[in-house]
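*** Protein under study ***
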Amino acid sequence: MKLHTLLTHLPFVKQMNGEDNPDILAIEQDTRKVKEGTLFICIEGSRFDGHEFAHEAIEKGAVAILSNRKLAVNVPNIIVPDTNRAMAILADAFYQHPTHELFLVGITGTNGKTSVSHLVDHIFRAANKKTGLIGTLYSKFGNKTTETKNTTPDSLTLQKTFRQMLNEHVEAVSMEVSSHALVQGRVRGCDFDIAVFTNLTQDHLDYHKTMEEYKKAKSLLFSQLGNTYYENRKKYAVLNADDSTTGEYMKMTSAHIITYGMKNTCDVRAENVNFTGQGTTFYLKTPKGNRQVTTKLIGIFNVYNVLAAVSVGLAAGINIDTMINSLSSFAGVPGRFELVQAGQKFPVIVDYAHTPDSLENVLKTVTSLPHSRIFVVVGCGGDRDHGKRPLMARIACTYASDAIFTSDNPRSEDPMAILNDMEKGVSGLSYKVIPDRKEAIHYAIEQANDGDVVLIAGKGHETYQIIGDKVIDFDDRQIAKECITEKYKKFQPTKRNTDFDK
């Protein structure tokens, strides 16, 4: 595509220095990816300013530079007020508006985004749809799985990924949409068919500052569904009727609304919920019929996740029996209430719960399991919302008989300072502080006996610890297996040397 043709998609440019009209073969914001024929976009980030790398990009083959100020370069320099906004527009145009052809589901909320996106993907595949998935764990379609740095990638990466999905004949995509992504405009240009709201509880106040601002950030997904009613492409907002925020989000969208829940009046409802050692059963009531549901997932929070996914399926026109049959085979998501089994006779569970609400939900589920003592290993991330630290500590002490506070990605903060913040919420309560996370996990497993339960919370699927500016290999699941193996080695009888009998 010619540069001048591409630029017609922008409403206006402040200035353009240079009259050349080169062919644009790629668009990049990372100099490491620049090749011959690239339009390089200068983005000001929290750590780096892309304007400082413009000359490097040109040396690598960039034939034009998009910036928010004039640069001394020898290629066309297009100056716009907001390079982030321009990048979203240009990426959508360059990759030929891929989401106009995809069925796109966006999931937002404090908790449940990953599980709901995987459930939706599972349901779509059961309906013989070729699917794509984008979220915290990875970007996945066909036989290709790519690691993601953020829950929701930037607009350029998204549009490129959507085009790759179309090239592989993907029909439907389920995608996690974070509050950061919405505020930063990463999903501009994404033509969502369905937007899902899971819940809103305290998180990310280091970024959003107040719960009101956090709530507004999530609302952007629903206000962006559009203001028209096309019969051949209806838009839906799928909302949790049991969350008090839903009423406000209803006012912010013109889309058709489907509500789900267990307490308040709603369209998709779960009744007679029962938990077993093998999973959960409940009676599902929907406008398309009622069915008994059996799933391997455990916990009230997972019932909500299933209801959200079923609501998406109904909006997408998927047969209700196809959905119900598929739910019985869904095995779960890595790091979400994941059982670690290494021969022990008590459950060891690893979960991503890193907010007060998610930790409470998981611990409530754990208390519903047969147990004598409940051990919970939990910490709070550094350089993040300080306000949730004492809340999480109190929740741990409230639901667990043995709460163990430890490190969880302390980043630039002193781990002891984080632990001190946690302790402010548990004055007079019983708990143990073990700053080293491996030692904390080892202690919990060493102390646990048959009939007890061990929950290792906070990191879930993550395979690293961030300490200072270093990223260290660390997987709660692997550490737990090692600790279990070590525990039971002590009880193995030493093999007697019987060579003298020969």
